[in-house]
Predict the structure.
Amino acid sequence: MPIHSTHHSWVLETAHTAYSFGLNSQGLLAHCYWGPVLPRAEDYPPAPDLPGWPFNSQGQVVPEEFPAPAGLKYIEPCLKITYADGTRDTVLDFESDQRIGEDELVIHLHDRSYPLRVRLHYRLHPQLDIIERRVEIENAGDQPATLERVFSAQWHLPRFGAYRLSHLSGRWLDEFHLQRHPLKSGLTVLESRRLTTSHHASPWFAVDRGSADEEQGEVWFGALAWSGNWKISAEVTDFYSTRVSIGLNDWDFAWKLNPGEVFTTPSSHAGYTQNGFGDASRRLHDLIRDQILPHGHTPHKILYNSWEATTFNVDVPSQARLAELAAGMGIELFVMDDGWFHGRHSDNAGLGDWWPDEEKFPDGLTPLIEQVNRLGMDFGLWVEPEMVNPDSDLYRAHPDWVIHFPTRERTESRNQLILNLGRPDVQDYLIETLGRLLAQNNIAFIKWDMNRNVSEPGWPDAPGDAREIWVRYVRGVYRVWGELRRRHPQVVWQSCSGGGGRVDLGVLALADQAWTSDNTEATARLNIQAGFSQVFPANVMEAWVTDAGRGRISLDFRFHVAMCGSLGVGGDLLAWDADERESAARWIALYKDIRETIQFGDQYRLGNPQEEPFTAVQYVSKDRSEAVLFVFRTHIPEPIFLPPVRLRGLDPLRLYKVEGLSGARTGLAWMNTGVQVMLSDFESSVMRIRAV
């Protein structure tokens, strides 16, 4: 059984790892162990009974599984609540445990003096070596209480260790930069306060002892399934312990928990490996594909997006001509971007009025869609449902529907305001309007965009505390998107927020892929895509070949970079000559042959393009019968000897043939001696590897 329990202790085992906690003699629910699975349940340590310290209680020293502030306890808590009488601490006692099937455990806690119940949920993903945690807070009394913080989990590292934190940072056009630095005494905080996941950070962490690399070393890692304000707090205490808390951001947050109500946190997923950062990434990749994505193992079609060719100047003739060129190259999905809906001639107007513009499409979208379908392609469309332009029919009818403070000027960004999707009437409007669009048109793909962050986060007639907006908004997005998915399950959705501003395990339960960055310059994308792959698999990562760098970076290089994810094309095909379109057709045909290995295989990062100008990335099919190797060189001053590229993930005893090289060798040989690839500056290569 993967979950073992004895008297007040629990051991959760996956295929290769174990996690344990229990009650100590003082009644504290304490973390005991997180590491490789041990031979016997009796091998796991008991709940720690550590002595207190002057000016501190035992609760300051013991690694509690879900700490709340009480007594002489000053560590970073997971729960902060104010009761109706003004009491602001919480004393949690164990009540019972509950098993749900073989892979789920619930620990029931309650406040010693108040009718508050806390349920800690644990769910195992055994073959992935990942544990999922979430928390339910129930007000079982007859007076309201106010939640001011509730994290999803606190993850404890083994005591007496010195640790290094890995995380992602960035900004618009420059997302997903991998950062690594030692954890020092005190708190290290990562967060978003922007209403979305943000371009600037990602709700993911990895912790090691300072010496792990892609292939070896202990790594503890985790991510949060949430698309709004989030917080990661890594704490190194003065008592030789390190812990990482993750969950909803408590900045400007409050939730009025009325009698009988239950508040549920988003899930935190976390795991442990002894095989380095690469293995940690592949476990998250498998979790996302196998457990989270709506169509996790359906190959993504190669798309063309018309934005760069026509911007807002869309109509049937312009789009039909681009569709003909795209189909001739082997494109499978044609996506019309911004500019198609009522009153939309620039970014000054139209957002919110989601029906075809009567001047551009007098007969609706059907004639264009039928032309695209006759060319053998599916049809897709861009929308930005969460936004509204003041110059729109929707805003003129409902100016109160936007997020705002009544006494403040409404700050516009990109000439738009944010609809308050915490409001059920706004949700209903979008479900009805977008649902009608999908019901009346043969649309196979939707690019859901969001092109600004929040300002004036007010809700004048909020149903509870106005600070609930941060959570109610995201839940509203989930409701709208989820209901549209339920009604139209065949549609494939993409999450976009000015590029990579909303990519997380929460939105990926709704969207099969994400627009990684608005920066499509190929050498910049090498860096962005490497950081993205720390968390997300290749089939999630939509990557376009565009005209960025055209004339400086070869079309081959640009295709190779984009082929490392879910391939798309976004350049102005009207400006491409016949040779460029012929080259594109050749790479598109190759991508179709290797697509499943890239999108569903195991990914190996063979170098870090954020630090090295000569790097490679390899994808290996799950049965290890074939692989694909991409090698890139940016700028290296001559003279230079390029090192061999040592392959990874092959069956050591199986024979493999590498495209372009003579003879077959064992996987062990290729992995230890490598492949010599000769490239000049800004050249790249793609090589297929097959078992023989």
